[in-house]
């Protein structure tokens, strides 16, 4: 019997002035381990007059992980973080009880032709840590564990895998792994993963028990410990997942919580402009359906 439980296609979603491919959540599957939300940004080629601008917006109860394949994003937040993320590095922002951040094309690129391509990910926090103080960590590309096993190249973006640990300071047991294939190969991870697991095919294809799956598809396994598949030359895939939480997580807009009342409070706080401000930024993304600016 196949170990694949669900097969989903990437879906288009609009985040203001930018179209992205939405990978998670789905109606049939709201989370994979602690991962509750994944957007595939781009690949987009922007003219000299076009820029990526997501103004100040709030988060609670989660950690955001930004990972770029191409381009650059200027991140600023109410903790005081002010940094440009580039391909291969990781921005890890823990919202906890509440944080506001913006994401924009860096000033040096605003009047040039540019490209942008990457992943935006939300990871739910354990219930006891949903209200911790916000924090921010930037991990350079050179500090992300990477290695080669035959024709397969691995990169441990976050979490733990086969005795290795990423420096991204996660709050629960999870994994996010990039695998790229220089030749056709079999990936046998039986006994190496844990909890729930999803597989996203960025490019190329994988085969499993006579079935072939192509790029922009996401596969969800029934049992992460039984994960094995064939991967074609030139393919790049991402495995992500981990131990799920016992409590359900609710999502509204940019808010995640095990307690619906905290989401309602966050909504009202944003409408009433009670969140902290990012120094020097006055625009703000309105709550969907509201008239606040």
From TrEMBL:
Record: residues binding Fe cation: 57, 59, 101, 103
Domain Pirin N-terminal, residue spans: 26-123
Top-level taxonomic group: Bacteria
Endpoints of the signal sequence: none
InterPro entries: Pirin, Pirin_C_dom, Pirin_N_dom, RmlC-like_jellyroll, RmlC_Cupin_sf
A molecular function GO annotation: metal ion binding
Domain Pirin C-terminal: 178-275
Family membership: Belongs to the pirin family.
Protein's recorded name: Pirin family protein
